[in-house]
Write a structure and sequence with these properties.
2 copies of one chain form a homodimer. Chain A has 414 residues and is of the alpha+beta class. Chain A folds into 2 domains: 3-203, Cytochrome Bc1 Complex, Chain A, domain 1, CATH 3.30.830; 225-411, Cytochrome Bc1 Complex, Chain A, domain 1 (2-Layer Sandwich), CATH 3.30.830.10. The first copy, chain A, has helices at 44-51, 61-70, 95-107, 116-129, 134-146, 159-164, 167-177, 193-203, 251-261, 268-276, 304-319, 327-344, 348-362, 368-376, 380-389, and strands at residues 3-6, 12-17, 23-31, 55-56, 59-60, 74-79, 83-91, 184-189, 225-229, 235-243, 283-289, 294-302, 396-401. In chain A, the strands form 3 sheets. Chain A has a 6-stranded mixed beta sheet, with helices on both faces. The first copy, chain A, has a 5-stranded mixed beta sheet with strand order 9-13-10-12-11, with helices on both faces. A two-stranded antiparallel ribbon of chain A has the order 4-5. In chain A, helix 1 crosses helix 7. The first copy, chain A, starts with a strand and ends in a 13-residue tail after the last strand. Chains A and B meet through helix 2, strand 6, strand 7, helix 4 and helix 10 of A and helix 2, strand 6, strand 7, helix 4 and helix 10 of B.
């Protein structure tokens, strides 16, 4: 059971005590992220996230890095689509030190000009590497084409935006985003909540203000078909359609439906496309959601020769699900979701991240028991109702490779 | 502390009781793997590992899959280079059921002829996908060129070998390898050792014989340089050189040295190549070892323009390490290794896998405290001595991409 406290400066602190482990992990979420980058500077937030690791307060780049390493504190600073995320994972004895270092990075980053060029260079390398990774590229391109501005921005930034980013941009972004209002610090592991809250109050003192909100989400387009010509050996297929967002009444129905479609080594997509027909080595569907929107994404990579049959089979599975779910199938999907949930949440890193995400998305933290109960309560009727609201027939389709495919009429975008 | 028992049929059962979790995980290692495939059938073991999931005993393919799924048991059957690995992860209530299903798969797999074509097809898809993944391909090609026969076989199999595999080959392989002698079942989680040993004795009864040994390891070649022309956008650089094998007296020195070279967000390679010069987004070195051999592999992917400087910097770091390690650097590397070890081993899956690996490689199981102590005892002198025995100057270098690089004289293979 998580303990939640709002500090005087509005920073929310969530602590889950897990006594039997030796480690502790925490996530600090700050408002901002790639959606909040200035229009001509998409990727500036990635530069900022790298740059705060290059010195803070009295510590220069090397001293800061050494301070983490000397205590075996694994740390990571990143910018995602809609937030900054600072993660630490460590043996619990060093929690005070770790929090102090994290606070230094967000309150007093040095942001040294001389590190800017090398950071921009390595972020550009990451974008360039996309050319050699068509499966990752297909999903980035699909997001670019399908999501409304600015939610369609690549989470790895844009070449022009990163190139154009100056230190002035970075300083402005830091002033705008690295603020306690709207931020959340989620700690899980071998800790006492009272001590963590006291420590956090101490290291995050002398800090105030509120980070930027999330831009309006303008909704998804009508079904479209996109093709990107590429000389890759395989043909990449990615489908996407709107689904329940976080907090929707049929959110859990969407989760169970996704389990029925694709849950690791089972699920209809896996059975029909991989097991029965051997059409591709890996195939999956994912239900992703935020407070603003939800989507289902289906991905498969296959040879050009097998691509048409693969796409046809995926469409067949997606459109054939309504009204055909059996009780056993439903129960199997639930058992797998709950089992994966419980096992996945046995680590401090997973607990800290889940609690932070819950708060970020809904302003509260669910217990595992609550999630389990909601999953178990989903009925076949719930799923069929959900499928009426969010039909897979509304999917947009992207293919990337050397060949165009025949698409179902509904999804040609004509 | 793990409890170890050898059953009457020589199957070794290792149990680590972890009371405070809800889950249990186990690994069953069986002798065989890709090194043991018949010469013209490289990849047959991968077909076998897929095929045992397609029905066993009275259960056909669907019934077997459903039996796992109905209990939320996540399972995976795989063939690696030198063993078969069957993994399960589940809520502890279902352990008896899971063990029974696993035993059925190894003792009475149905090996249905009608599933063979689709399995071969999907394994071939995985090989074909390598063409679109140059970073993965570089490491597969390096292993092919550098390791002695048959340890140089690709862990994803060979196209010709998989195509040529018949059901007769599969049945013969199963008869040869799926035997209790030399096999190990490692269980970790919320279980009682006495009960697990009793259950294992029951489900693995009526099974006897010993699996095949590992082929002789003929040693590594002199330093070589390999280049593979490819129209990929990036240039892939991979270096490899011999290092301490598992159980060598300087095994732990090799581990600490690797921490100094490359440990997540720290280490000399990371600092020099990524942070200071921004030459590539990701770079790492790994120390891998078995009972037969040890190696260090360094990998970086970068643009053709930055590739020469990247390679030069890597070589500079590798050759500059001897005699230059500071006490603080040593302590930082140790703190990070131990911290990552403790945190990583807090899951049942990790404990089960580590115990199984230890037994497989050395016939005993180390405790975490033993590993920690060995790491803490490593001195700078140990590392310098280790570097004399295993010099990075002996590295072979593979480049994959559109450009050849200037190599250091020692590594031209001339």
């Amino acid at each position: 059971m998580a303990i939640i406290e709002k500090l005087a400066n509005d920073l929310v602190v969530i602590v889950e005590e897990i006594d039997h482990l030796e480690s502790v992990a925490y996530n600090l979420f700050l408002r901002g992220g790639v959606v909040n980058d200035p229009e001509e500077r998409v990727g500036a937030s990635l530069v900022l996230a790298e740059l705060i690791g290059r010195g803070a307060g009295e510590l220069d780049s090397r001293a800061l890095s050494d301070a983490f390493d000397a205590r075996g504190i694994s740390h990571q600073e990143a910018s995602s689509l809609n937030r900054y995320v600072l993660r630490c994972s460590l043996l619990s004895d060093y929690l005070s030190d770790a929090l102090e270092l994290t606070a230094k990075m967000v309150k007093q980053p040095r942001l040294p000009q001389e590190e800017l060029a090398s950071i921009k260079s390595l972020l550009i390398q990451d974008i360039e590497a996309l050319k050699d990774n068509p499966s990752r590229r297909a999903l980035v391109e699909l997001a670019k084409l399908y999501f409304p501005v600015p939610f369609n921005r690549p989470v790895i930034g844009e070449l022009e935006g990163i190139n154009a980013t100056s230190l002035k941009d970075i300083v402005a972004l830091k002033e705008q985003c690295f603020l306690p209002g709207g931020a959340v610090l989620s700690v899980a592991g071998k800790v006492k909540a009272s001590r963590v809250i006291k420590e956090a109050g101490k290291v995050f003192t002398g800090w105030s203000g509120e980070g930027p909100g999330i831009p309006d989400f303008k909704g998804f387009p009508k079904p479209q078909a996109y093709h990107i010509d590429s000389n890759s050996a395989q043909l990449q297929i990615a489908l996407i359609y709107p689904s329940a967002k976080f907090g929707d009444h049929d959110y859990y129905a969407a989760k169970v439906l996704n389990g029925i479609l694709s849950g690791g080594m089972f699920g209809r997509l896996f059975i029909e496309v991989r097991e029965k027909k051997g059409l591709c080595y890996s195939i999956y569907s994912r239900h992703g959601s935020t407070a603003e929107y939800g989507t289902v994404t289906v991905y498969a990579g296959t040879t050009p020769e097998r691509a048409q049959e693969t796409l046809d089979t995926i469409i067949e599975v997606l459109t054939g699900i309504k009204g055909t779910i059996s009780d056993e199938e439903l129960e199997r999907a639930k058992a797998n979701i709950v089992s994966a949930l419980v096992i996945g949440e046995e680590s401090t890193g997973a607990r800290a991240a889940s609690n932070a995400s819950d708060w970020w998305t809904s302003g509260r933290v669910r217990t595992l028991d609550e999630i389990k109960e909601k999953i178990f309560n989903v009925t076949i009727e719930d799923i069929n109702r959900h499928l009426e609201a969010y039909s897979p027939l509304n999917c947009s389709i992207l293919t990337l490779g050397s060949r165009r495919l025949e698409l179902p009429v509904d999804n040609k975008g004509e």
